Amino acid sequence: MAIARVATRAANGVDAPPVWVEAHLSNGLPAFTLVGLPETSVREARERVRSAIINAGFEFPMRRITINLAPADLPKQGGRYDLPIAIGILAASGQLPVKALEGLEFVGELALTGEIRGCSGLLPVIIEARKIAAGLVMPQANRTDAELVGYQQVYLAAHLQHIAAFLHGQQTLPNIHDSPNWITPPAPNVGCMSEVIGQYQAKQALEIAAAGNHNLLFLGPPGTGKSMLASRILSLLPPLDYEEALQVSAIHSVAGMHLEPQQFYQRPFRSPHHTCSAVSLVGGGAIPKPGEISLAHLGVLFLDEIAEFPRKVLDCLREPMETGEVIISRAAAKLKFNAKFQLVAAMNPSPCGDSGPESRATPEQIRRYLSRLSGPFIDRFDLTVEVPKLPPGTLTADSGDGETSASIAERVAQARQQQLQRAGKLNSELSGSELKQSGFAAADLVFLEQSVTKLGLSVRSFHRLQRVARTIADLAQSPAVERRHIAQALGYRAMDRLLANLSRQ
Q: Following DSSP, what letter does each residue of 1-61 receive, concatenated?
């Protein structure tokens, strides 16, 4: 019977569900029918496959060809189905042994000459093939993706003729021999904290944010070092472990972005411009792709000049910041992308840049400017820190070398280790019940509640202040959270103080 089945995989967000390419050759007028919910890019595969088979030296069967991509309710897009369709036609026509296809999956785009071109988003395909221990024939151009996963049953091909010789047992295809251990974590090239002059409170807040994975907002006039401080946070964070790095690489692969092996263990740092749209930030599109918040998964999302972002765009971040994922719903499918990011932002305290006596803006103008950030969104920040102008003489004074990022990173790593040993998660992820068991005295919680009530803060802020105080205690190597740690956490509420001063004017 002139029929063959070839295994491949579709692209469905960061998942790669299995797809069977069924090829059937029957008598009748020559025709090439492609069914199974193919998008336009897949329907165009008919012309590419026909030319590739002929130019590779094979015979294109002059019969009625029907190709079914099963399951039929799963949308298929992209050129990754070219290779399995060609293999199915050649196997159904007897030019390739059908038995040799067992236990193998094929993915790749074909050129008209029969060459196999690389595809984007193949990292999830390799990961899924590894889970079921299936052999995967893929383009040689995607060798880097295979090396990141370190799966040794990957076979790399550059031409359709090479695959035919491999299936006939006449030659072998190159595969991956190296394990992922050869990828060494590099030191992030983001500068050192010792280069930042002054701003000791902001540096301390950055250390606390890095230790507990807290969201941080810098508030200060232009030129005080807000962006410089934010870019240094990567030098304080520990590198990703292998499974985390694989998650990040899979998201970048689906987005069509190529990660070099030297960047494999490095946490992502995304800094979108304030003119970006909600779709580019959150994700979406006709064919849903991950946005900036998913590309910052397990890393840092830095929003500079956050007040210049449209308010509707910023409010789209509120739910992903709480859940750690973003769900994109479309008529055809519902996709989920991980978005467990740490938000660091910077803004000016007024439209003119300055606050206080030096400000040229009226209190009403400042209130309108700050209202671009909704109250629930500001509530998502654990720390809001003022970055003031440096006192005269600071730039020319010989203050000696400041503390380096390496020494701060040691304290951050030690504090993170304590958090993982105590609760199995970082302090920013602790629930309300877990916070009660994390070393707070009853009298200190009463003090904190009274402070929150006096400042007019929400219940969410009450819990966030507890998490920050717990992180401060961890950095101080203190098993219990003391009153001074809570007082220090209350000191990192610059935005609340600014709004309270405006309300009194």
A: --EEEEEEE--BTTB--EEEEEEEEESSS-EEEEESSB-HHHHTHHHHHHHHHHHTTPPPP
